[in-house]
Amino acid sequence: MSTSDQQIKNVVLVHGAFADGAGWRGVYDNLTSRGFKVTIVQNPLTSLEDDVAATTRVLDRQDGPAILVGHSWGGTVITEAGVHPNVAGLVYVSALAPDAGETTGQQYEGFAETPEFVIDVVDDGYGFLNSEKFKAGFAHDASDADAAFLRDAQVPINMSVFATPVKNAAWREKPTWAVIATEDKSFDQAMLQHMATRAGAKITNVSASHALYVTQAGVVADTIAAAAEGAPPTGQ
Length: 236
Prior knowledge:
Elements: E1 10-14, H1 25-33, E2 37-41, H2 48-60, E3 66-71, H3 73-81, E4 87-93, E5 119-121, E6 126-129, H4 134-138, H5 144-152, E7 157-158, E8 176-181, H6 189-198, E9 202-206, H7 212-215, H8 217-230
Parallel strand pairs: 1-2, 1-3, 3-4, 4-8, 8-9
Antiparallel strand pairs: 5-6, 6-7
């Protein structure tokens, strides 16, 4: 499938906590080989406002409608930033999807804990994933080498972001897709299914870890391509 057959050719990828945009390389390569124009946001992970601003800067540069994709914490970011007029559709990749007025932290309420996903919070309020638990909690289906690289390249997040409410819920206005890792050890499976269902997302389940954007890049890319084909261009 080439983008000549579809109206939407732009894709914007938004990474989550404890990561940077490099993890999207497999998805990027897959989509660009199909003719998509792909841009990767580098979130500072310093506040929701800062991450939304970083995403908005990229959306402002798009030359037409775009599919906005978020992994994990990136889901909260695209929920807020996705009201941008250039966004034609949203894709949540094992991602958080709060409603307007809700915090990210509230999404965990009533769902099971994830004991293998351990965050070490340092004195300045930033969190890193525990080095010993990293592979088990984040990327158990990755090779040891890939998991070690993700662990050692991780970017800490300001833990206060989880208490910041979102002002807008773009999924209430924009067509939405979700890819959910059925072996995710970072979020309770019931929590992921609940958020995606509430958002009205077309859900694809795949056997993978939380790092499915790396380990199942083909499935993620296929879902993004389906969103590009299925979402109406903005303004129509």
